[in-house]
Write a structure and sequence with these properties.
alpha/beta; 4-stranded antiparallel sheet
Amino acid sequence: MTLIDTSPPPTTSTPPTTATSPTSTTATGTNAEGHRMPSTSTSAPHLRLDRPLHGRDGEILTPAALAFVTELHDRFARRRHDRLAARLRRRFEIGTGDDPHFRADTAHIRDDPSWRVAGAGPGLEDRRVEITGPTDPKMTINALNSSARVWLADQEDATSPTWSNVIGGQLSLFDAIRGQLSFTSPEGKRYEVTAERTPTIVMRPRGWHLPEKHVSFIDRAGRELPASGSLIDYGLYVFHNAHALIAAGRGPYFYLPKIESAEEARLWDDVFSFTEERLGLAHGTIRATVLIETLPAAFEMEEILFALRDHCAGLNAGRWDYIFSIIKTYRGRGARFVLPDRSEVTMTVPFMRAYTELLVQTCHKRGAYAIGGMSAFIPNRRRPEVTEAAFEKVAADKRREAGDGFDGTWVAHPDLIPVARAEFDAVLGDEPNQLGRTRDEVAVDPADLLDVRIGLPVTTAGVRGNVSVAIRYIEAWLRGLGAVAIDDLMEDAATAEISRSQIWQWIHQDHSTAEGIAITRGFVEELMTEVLADAPRFEGDRFDDAAAVFREVALREEFPAFLTLPAYAKYLD
């Protein structure tokens, strides 16, 4: 274990020390009757790292940066745990029949026409095409050399959170922001940033639910818990880069994932306000775009915007996690909530149409940008017919989004940027957004958001596809790859979550395929055997571990809220 004293620095100029134990104090006292009370020990809050520093790690894990991250935990870790507990309570309530609804206690926020969000910060005025991707050096350079207006620098679903990826991603961003990033592949190919105008960086930290197991937070009472992945990712990035980003004419911008309530958004807002005060930034400098990718959040979009109004740039339709959230939330509520094959749950089915139209209307009512989601189709440069089909499907998807009033959209591959941009250019022209389209004609009620009727069956091929995709993705994730091309689709943690949660639901709802095959654990085990037999095994592969993870998250009686939690705890370095 590497112990680093990360308590807040004293008011003098003496820097924090490293590799020392934090100071402790012991207090005793008497109660009202004069009896001596047991002594209690308190210590300065601090972080403990269980990994030695290698290479350039010390440029990120500096004493000052760790002291700042410690302050974030000291102020906000307890509230984070409270919010996670509230999630569990609400999930239980919905699972036992209390459907989500528009909150009565916040109706005054929705009914007040006067308030607006802060809106676009410098460099976020035009977001018509955003590219997403992990933050390793090669992918960082490719994203910065793309012609996208914005890069979602993803430390969440597109990044496997190995310790080397967590810190390596921070180093990539640190270097990119300072114009000093380059990379040479093992084959000797050199990559450099050559674009005259690089995309505005919007960094996505891990969600509130994810821990960082390589860092422990020890509170004032001496209690030790895993640190928050959110606060680690966010804290290191904003501490090192906020002033450099502002000097470059942009700013510290974030995508906030997995939000489930306005209270969770308010927690982020308080983190931002504290950060601005602590780092000497003007209030409102930090801007956030919230991913609406959980069912509970869809019922609180206006409240989420209000909670973050001084720091909010917009909302994003996180389509894949949203589908996963629907399945997870209603997995035990009966056959009418069973969805068909994953490929049939498109953006045009009723509940997805209601969700996206409400998002655009809500955003534009409050001066927030509405950003569309990522189509999973990707080109294949070795197979022109696959590329042509991908272009056609992505163009149709982006044409629908632009027509619905979205101000921008996501792509996962540089070759798709011209396709998406053409569809938004056709609607936007020279305008940077569609905020003037308020979509007053849209009327969405709770029943619309819960209308999961699609009218299509589950097929045997659909079951096998889910098993195959989930195992192959998990295998890559365990090797440190968070975004993977599988069968000409871009898979990340969100799409893998859909695959494994559908398997769990189909089994527990005693569902059968259109061909009459009962979807049981035994049937799924047979498909797993086939998938593993077909897998291209190689030295160092993680297919056996991937199969074990899949069994735990798809075949056990209990349903883990996220597959990444047990996989991270047991199998990831």
